[in-house]
Amino acid sequence: MVNLIDKLAQNVSFALNNFQREAARRGAEKALRESEQRFRDIAQAAGEYVWENDNEGRFTYLSPKWSKYWATPPRN
């Protein structure tokens, strides 16, 4: 009986840890989305040529001014 209760306590602890990790992951994703939106809002409001590349040199963001000047679709 003690072993079963111990195993149950371990399972509950594992589940609670998973819930905490999931909540932290969701919070981090939300913060990232908000940060990315602020970046795009600033880039658009600045009215300048703004772009972003990934580690392989591919464009991941082109500001509206960049897109208009080079006649390319905006990348968000």
Describe the structure.
The protein has 76 residues and is mostly helical. The protein has one domain. 68% of the residues lie in helices and 9% in strands. It contains two helices and two strands. It has a two-stranded antiparallel sheet. The longest helix is centred in the N-terminal third of the chain and has 45 residues, at 2-46. It starts with a helix and ends in a 6-residue tail after the last helix.
Please, what is the average pLDDT? 88
Percent helix, as a range, is 55-70%
| DSSP summary: helix tally | 2
Q: What does the radius of gyration come to?
A: 23 Å
List keywords for this structure.
2 helices; two-stranded antiparallel sheet; 76 residues; mainly alpha
Structure summarized in a few sentences:
With 76 residues, the chain is mainly alpha-helical. The chain has one domain (2-70).
List the helices and strands and how they pair.
Layout: H1 2-46, E1 51-53, E2 59-62, H2 64-70
Antiparallel strand pairs: 1-2
